[in-house]
Design brief:
Layout: H1 15-25, H2 34-47, E1 57-61, H3 64-74, E2 82-86, H4 95-99, E3 103-107, H5 118-127, E4 133-137, H6 146-156, E5 159-163, E6 171-172, E7 175-176, E8 183-187, E9 200-204, H7 207-217, H8 240-250, H9 253-270, E10 276-278, E11 285-286, E12 293-296, H10 304-313, E13 319-320, E14 335-337, H11 344-351, E15 352-354, H12 363-377
Parallel strand pairs: 2-3, 2-4, 3-14, 4-5, 5-8
Antiparallel strand pairs: 1-9, 6-7, 6-11, 8-9, 10-12, 12-15, 13-15
Helix pairs in contact: 1-8, 2-8, 5-6, 9-12
The structure holds pyridoxal-5'-phosphate (PLP).
Length: 378
């Protein structure tokens, strides 16, 4: 039996150990410290890579979810506030809204990126003119329609939060995802394009927000000789050891992106002629190609779950498309706004599948996956 071919697993390079070793050598194992500071600085530089002179204010945290939670808090979401959210995403995008008592309204996707449809967003603002914020995710590393979404948010005075957990390194018209909103969140979970085993980062568009987020993430301590508190705080900071892994990984982010891109195009080429399409993106965007996915044509009656089971027999891991939030039992009370009667997301969920996209997969191994997919359709 071949070794199991997986969706996406950590790829380490050695530099990570150098920074971790430095933390050990200096006995700087506590949270905060030089690796955290430098990781934030280096990420700032990376995020600026697409445009001139714009400074971002990054904050290293213990997870992408904690970054999203702080973004929701800083956006001032309180009990009963409406947040218009991506529907096709992972639950971590929207759970923090519930932590704060807010109410999600889910927005259907469009067919060009599988992300939030600006037309449905506009429609949602007609229904919920007081919606306080918009939470947009860049699914599988593909940038959403950011010009349209940013304009709609501005027009309605809503705060834009970007969940860039899956899309680090992806750009929209040359600008990094996560830097369009007032807040952005990145994840370094084990399956993401770079990883610290677990971790995340909040991106703020101004220094004051970053400062307040830092305070909340470190137990909301005020500047006093004793422990003084004026807010409810959290213990959300990244540890200095973990940040060392992140610094080493960041050196290889572009390389990971290139390898992911090769995988995507090898699938595209290898699966030509079959009744399916790859996950789409806009030509003026550059995804990070975190996960390669297929969508079986509407008029083909093949079932992706059958394909998943078949590939599993060959030790190939695949996974259904993230199940839309409006279809989740836990969110059954939330409204869902769409423009296309038959619903874009339900169709993508029913006919889509995520393929092995691990950058350690060899060309031969990927050809094996392609061969088995072709066999299924023939
Ligand atoms: C992974 C992920 C998160 C959560 O990040 P963690 O670091 O695991 O907390 C949030 N949103 C999306 C879309 C994700 O894929």
């Amino acid at each position: 039996m071949n070794k199991r071919l997986l969706l996406s697993t950590p790829t380490m390079h050695g530099e990570e150990m150098k920074y971790v070793q430095e933390a050990f050598d200096k006995n700087w194992i506590a949270p905060l410290g030089f690796n955290c500071d430098n990781f934030e600085k280096e990420m700032d530089e990376y995020l600026n890579s697409g445009i001139d002179g714009q400074a971002y204010n990054t904050l290293a945290l213990c997870s992408g979810t904690s970054a999203l939670h702080l973004a929701v808090k800083l956006a001032g979401i309180k009990s009963g506030d409406i947040v218009l959210c991506s529907d096709m995403t992972f639950a971590a995008t929207v759970n923090p809204i519930s932590y704060e008592g807010g109410k999600q309204v889910y927005i259907d996707s469009e067919n060009e990126t599988w992300n939030m449809d600006p037309r449905a967003l506009e429609r949602a603002f007609e229904k919920y003119p007081n919606a306080k914020a918009v939470m947009v995710a860049h699914l599988y590393g593909t940038p959403s329609k950011m010009d349209e979404i940013s304009d709609i948010c501005k027009k309605h005075g809503a705060i834009l939060i970007e969940d860039a957990a899956e899309s680090l390194g992806a750009t929209y018209k040359g600008r990094q995802t996560g830097t369009f909103g007032r807040y952005g969140a990145i994840s370094f979970n084990g399956n993401k394009i770079i990883t610290t085993s677990g971790g995340g980062m909040l991106i703020c568009d101004n220094k004051d927000d970053r400062k307040f987020a830092f305070k909340l993430a470190t137990q909301a301590r005020e500047n006093a000789p004793w422990y003084q508190h004026e807010h409810i705080g959290y213990n959300y900071r990244m540890s200095n050891v973990v940040a060392g892994i992140g610094r080493g990984q960041l050196l290889h982010l572009d390389e990971h992106r290139e390898l992911k891109k090769k995988i995507y195009f090898r699938y595209k080429e290898g699966l030509k002629g079959l009744p399916l399409k790859m996950n789409p993106y806009l030509e003026y965007t550059e995804p990070n190609f975190w996960l390669s996915c297929i969508l079986i044509d509407e008029d083909c009656d093949k079932d992706p779950i059958e394909l998943m089971n078949r590939l599993n027999e060959y030790n190939i891991e695949t996974r259904p498309i993230w199940k839309p939030m409006h279809m989740q039992p836990v969110f059954k009370d939330c409204d869902f706004v769409y423009v296309e009667e038959n619903g874009v997301n339900e169709h993508i969920f029913e006919k889509g599948l995520c393929l092995p996209s691990d950058i350690k997969m060899t060309e031969d191994e990927q050809n094996f996956v392609i061969e088995k997919i072709r066999e299924f359709f023939n």
